[in-house]
Amino acid sequence: MNIAIAKPCGPGRPKDLEKRAAILEAAKSLFLANGFEGTSMDAIAAAAGVSKLTVYSHFTDKETLFFAAIRARCEEQMPAALFDVVPNGPVRRQLEAIAYAFVAMVTAPEAVALNRLLASGTAMPQKLVQMFWEAGPQRVQGGFQQFLQHEVAAGQLAIDDIARAASQFFALLKGDLHARLLCGCSAPAAACDVDAHVRASVEMFLRAYGTGAARAP
């Protein structure tokens, strides 16, 4: 899906860039708090301190802004640099860094609320669900798959099906905690519990796919 995130601003127009950033920040908060249908462009404009016309001048429609907001939030919590391979760096440490960021992202209250809306099956049109998938989960999966491919090429990991292994890794990390949060029957895990869960998940992943020194603590 090709979506134009925003109309480009001409050079030397910092105020336009500031307005765009304010609009995006307002959209991230409102969409995650109230969902797509519960958020109006008027509300986003008011929260950003701009006119609705200004919102439309930067983002062509509400769907485009929704896509941009989800992608921006995902990039904040799991930036592309997180998947950069550190030459000669311990693969375990890099997997743990990715794991901590992922757990923090999917257990954030606003992320849990949005996932509940998506899981209801009636909260958003299928087109918006697909947009959410492409802006969030698919982007994370793609970045992690590239990371795994580099580590396989470096001999740190032995994986036949990269896509399946990436999916397994994130499924391990979600575990029981995420399911309980979605059901509303679990308080956020203590830091020590998250540490233990991340380490155990990475350990299991490396036992399945690690080679030689990569399995070492």
Q: Tags for this entry?
A:
2 domains; Tetracycline Repressor, domain 2; 10 helices; mainly alpha; disordered N terminus; Arc Repressor Mutant, subunit A; 217 residues; elongated
Description:
The protein is mainly alpha-helical and 217 residues long. It has 2 domains: 14-73, Homeodomain-like (Arc Repressor Mutant, subunit A, Orthogonal Bundle); 78-215, Tetracycline Repressor, domain 2, CATH 1.10.357. It is built from 10 helices and no strands. The longest helix has 22 residues, at 162-183. The protein starts with 13 loop residues before the first helix and ends in an 8-residue tail after the last helix. The model is unreliable at 1-12 (pLDDT under 50).
